[in-house]
Every structure is written in structure tokens, then in C-alpha cells.
């Protein structure tokens, strides 16, 4: 049995709105991470190509300037800007650093030229960045090696530029360094010199993606919230909470669910009216049948006095009519109970009921019957056990279980009624010391029309079920002594425990039975407690 339950649980997990919401959330988190990683790898390749291009450009410019810088002296320093201007344009900027021979360390580098001209403030900022990143320190050691850069700087005018390469030139005068920078959209639009997520394309895509994810999640949460409100209202209707005016249509906030909400409202109204009609019909039918039965019974009294006792057939006919009226009266009561049980299933009452008080009040009424049958009743009732049900429904349950225990208990036997809490459930058990039940029939005792009586009852009486036939489904002759299945003192149609199970399951409970080790039967009822 475990495997089908596991399959059912797996199917529920796949179809659950909550699990799908979790799955969608995982997808929304995982997909951008994977896409970001792919795009960042592609951007790194693009960045590498751009820096290699800039590095090669810096090398070419340095090679072109190398002959001039190799024979440079102090008089050349004033003309370096003009020389650099031959290789610069509006998007490509060149700057020249010099560390004179004999000046140690990275601090010995200073700017001696720029094309186009740049404010000293910008040059100082740029030099400081090169010092912070250790670039000038590496040049100071060997004055060799072309180094690609990826440094973003903001000029005094607020414009951005990207330092892309620094190429050293060693000469007798000192160590020169040609710094190349670009301000083209190709470089500024890339992620060179900044984290990839700060690029405008990634930020725009992230905003669109977040908006789409939020929209989908809000859609899911809106439907989920609506369903939760539907569920809460359904519980309120089932528990008869609130003022009774709320409807599913009023609670709905999703236009597409309007027709569903209206269908729910119609279904609730139909169930309520059907339950009311069943109860009304049961009461009307019982009254309609019992009135002529009472008239016939009253009319028999003068006939009993008129017909002489010496006439054997007359008194016997009167007795048969009297017993048939008892049977008919029982059948009418049985039919009414069946209709009321069906109505309770359509709209089971779920109000807060103190089951402890109800049990004590009801069981005190059995004192006379228990004394007559020489039975002992033991009560172990935990106080203030409150459940959600209806008093009439619970009274029917207790009556059927206790009377079943009484009918099977031997003289001087004991019946124990226990009520206790078990987590969120109230547990009611009724134990007797009767003959118990055949293990093969332990589940059948909750079936309709099933009744198990001892051999003595079966030998002394033929039984009649609710259809007017005996156990073999043959019609019982009218002139043969007969009684409904059960004891000789009360009418039993084999529906008592069936009604118990129907009523208990209708309010979310469970009823089971088992034979006691010491003999007798134990019936257990589990009911959800009121929170």
C-alpha cells in the first residue's frame, strides 16, 4: 500500500501550485545566472580582443617615437606634445611619462607630454591610479614589457576615457612610457575597467527580466492568494462562522475566476437548499405516516374490548396488527433518520461543542437502563475537550455507539467511556465486555444493514431489514412473529454504526473498531479539535 501512496504524493507534488511556484522561482534565479555567465565569458573575449588591439596600437606608436626618444635631451621635452599630436586624434589620446636616469623607484615617473593637451589635475589623477595598481613600479624595475590596461578615468570636463595600454621605451636619457587611452563608444560601451554587471546592456536586461519575473510571480501569488481566500471562506461556510453573507464572488479579485466563484456560490446555495429540503421532507413524511399509524393504533383499543377472548382468530389478528404497526412505526422512524443523515452529509454542522459536557449530560440519562440491565459504566472524561461539530450530530453518534455497547454487554458487565486529547485530535473510546466481532466482519459492522447478533437471537427470531425481507432476501410471511434485526427491546436496522461513520467522516473525523484482548469490542472515534 505504501507504493500507491508514494505515487499519489509525487503526483500531488507535480501538480501543486506551490511546487510550481517554487520551480518557476528556481528557473527565474538559475536562468539569469547561466545567461550572465555565458555573456560575461563572451564579453571577456571581446575585452581581450579590444585590449590586444589597443596594445598593438600602443606598440606601433612607441616604435614610431623610439628613434626620437632614443636621442632625446632636455630641449626635446618642450616639443613632445607636437610629436605626440601626429599619432593622436579626438578619440585616441596619448600621454608620455619619463623617469630620468638615476632617479629610483616608481615615484620618479612624471608626465612630460600629452596629446591633446590635458589639465595637470587629470594627469595627476592618472599617475596616481598607475601608482596604486603597481604598473609604474613594474616599469621602474625593468623599463620593458608592453602592458595592457583596463582603467576608467573621468576627465575634468566630466567625460570618460579608458587607459588601454602602457608601452615602455628605454633610452640613455631615462625610461619613457607611452600611455594610450580611448574615449570611443567601442571602449566606453564595453566592460573594460568595470564589473560586467555595471554595463548599460546588462543593467537594462536585468531590469526587464526582473519586471517580467515580478509580473509572473505576482500572477502566481494572485491566483494562490485568491485560492487561499476561497479555502478560508469554504472553511468558514463549513464551520458556520461569520455572518453568512460572504460569498466566493465577493472574495474574488481575479476577473478570470469570476465564473468559478459564482459557480461555487451556486453550489453552496444548492447544497444548503437540498439539505433543508431533505430535513423538511423527512419531517413532513414522518408526520404524514405517524398520524394514520396513531389513528389505527387508537382504533384497535375498542376492537380489543369488543372481540371476545374465546375467539382465537380475532385476538391473534389484533396482535398481528399491533405488531405490524410497531414495525411500521419503526420503519418510518428509520426512514426519517436516513433522510436526516443524508441532509447532515450535504451540510454538516461545525460549531464549537464542548464534547466533555455533552458526554456527561448524555451518559447520565442512561442510569436507569444500566441499572435495569445490571451494567456498570466507567467514565474517564478529560474536561473542556472542544470539537467542531453539531450537538445533534454528536448525540446521534454517542447514542448509537453506547447503545450498541449496552445491547451486547452481558449482565454485570462493564462499559468504559474515555475521552482524551491526542495532539490536535479528540479521542473518544467506548469499550464493552460483550462477545466482540468476528475478525472477518470487523470492518463490515460499519456497513449499512449489517448486524451481527448471537446464535440465540438468530434462533429465536427471524430478522427483518429495512426492505421488508429477511437476511436471505425472502419476504417474511405476515403471520409469522418477526422483529427488526437487533435486541428484543429496541429496533435495530443495522444502520447505527453506519450512521456513526458517515457523521464522523462528514466533519473530518475517523472511526475504527477492534476486539479487546480481554474480550469485548472497542470503538474509537477521532475528531479534530476546535482551534
Describe the structure.
The protein is an alpha+beta fold and 531 residues long. Helix content is 52%, strand content 17%. The chain has helices at 2-15, 17-70, 80-85, 120-132, 135-142, 185-188, 200-239, 248-251, 258-306, 313-346, 355-364, 367-372, 391-408, 455-460, 496-506, and strands spanning 92-100, 110-115, 147-154, 160-171, 174-182, 351-354, 376-381, 386-389, 414-422, 425-431, 463-464, 483-484, 510-515, 521-528. The strands form four sheets. It has a five-stranded antiparallel sheet. A five-stranded mixed sheet has the order 7-9-10-14-13. β3 and β4 form a beta hairpin. The chain is rod-shaped and about 160 Å long. The chain starts with a helix and ends with a strand.
What is this structure's SSE topology?
Elements: H1 2-15, H2 17-70, H3 80-85, E1 92-100, E2 110-115, H4 120-132, H5 135-142, E3 147-154, E4 160-171, E5 174-182, H6 185-188, H7 200-239, H8 248-251, H9 258-306, H10 313-346, E6 351-354, H11 355-364, H12 367-372, E7 376-381, E8 386-389, H13 391-408, E9 414-422, E10 425-431, H14 455-460, E11 463-464, E12 483-484, H15 496-506, E13 510-515, E14 521-528
Parallel strand pairs: 7-9, 11-12
Antiparallel strand pairs: 1-2, 1-5, 3-4, 4-5, 6-8, 9-10, 10-14, 13-14
Helix pairs in contact: 2-7, 9-10, 10-15, 11-13, 13-15
